[in-house]
Give the backbone structure.
Amino acid sequence: MYRALKVDERFCLICNESLDEIRSLEDLLFQHRTICTACQNQFKPVQKIFRIHDREWHVLYEYNDFLERLFFRYKEQRDIVLAPIFLERIRDHLKKMRSYQVCGLCSSDKHRLHRGFEPLIEMFKPYGIEVLSPLYKTRPVKQSAQSKASRKQIHTILKRKELYPLSKKKILLVDDVCTTGSSLEAACQLLDPQCVFVVAAHPQWLQTHASMGIEKKSSFW
Ligand SMILES: [Zn+2]
């Protein structure tokens, strides 16, 4: 096995394995990566477009245990070095997002202050994509801790910032995790985006929307 003896040896951002060891053809092909092939293989790609109320929703991954742990490390344990890994797979296509105003569902100010960074914004930043934040929540809601009924209340909690100008450019609405989709649906009503992009959708959401999947290649991958 080839072992590089360099001072600038690179390590997987997830598991800390050396990235300079070549174990497979994939290792040779993806030398620019920030994560190892073993970690990359634990992501479960969906890479499908769903047509919902005449709008295309582009879903990159299925939310699985692996991603749940990663999001926990990144968002709750504030392991900010993980920021680039979520979009690593589609890094070569992300520049296509620059023709949009990319708008995100960001955390409440309280959450952001506590955490010290905005996870959604940092995920896109390494790829030169600026995520705008034209919406706000009138009170903090932690989606994962909410019941299905109270999640529906997001429509009354989510508002458009009055003094946040957007240009005439088409809007791409992005989010990290789509659980029930209720926040994203509420945001769609407020922003009327051209399309939606989610990093990971829950298996339950994917199942419910299976019939809305369309056979079309996304320009984002
Ligand atoms: Zn790894």
In short: The mean pLDDT is 89.
